[in-house]
Amino acid sequence: MASEAQETERIVARLRPHGRALFWPSLVLIATVGAMAYFYGSFGQSWQNLGILAAGALVILLLWLLPLLSWLGKRYIITTRRIVLRSGFFVRIRQELLHSRGYDVTVRKAGLQSLFGSGDVLINTGLDSPVRMRDVPSADLVQGALHDLMEKSLNPIAARRQAEESRDGSLRDPGPQVDETTAWGQR
To answer: pTM of this prediction?
Structure first.
């Protein structure tokens, strides 16, 4: 009976930052491979040709592979119960926010983000600084989904109490009500 009352957690969305972040690294990769192919063999000594290959490999490593790994290392998972933010490749950071705790969701769009429909989703939990999901595709849709999920989630204690009351039948009569309202200076 308790398992029926609790809904299983389902994944609503798996997101990464917008793929637009890989445009410049991909352009650098294409230009570097083209330059390596053009200049390799044009020098008279073999160490100079190997230097071209080494320099090209270093440029590819620093300006294409590291941004790609950084992009792959960021993931946002939205479930029916919580938001999971994962970042990092070698050192992983995982942060979870429960929908039942309540929060404020804001979307901030800069120049190109408005053009592509993406944006930064700021989740204010009342702590020091808001949690930021950077450059999320379809940011307005994500904001709407988070509002809906937060609205549907119930406080677990209130849900358990509501299930117990419905199982017992109707609400019991609490008896006579005592007014404990206090006015200023008198009782």
So the answer is: 0.73
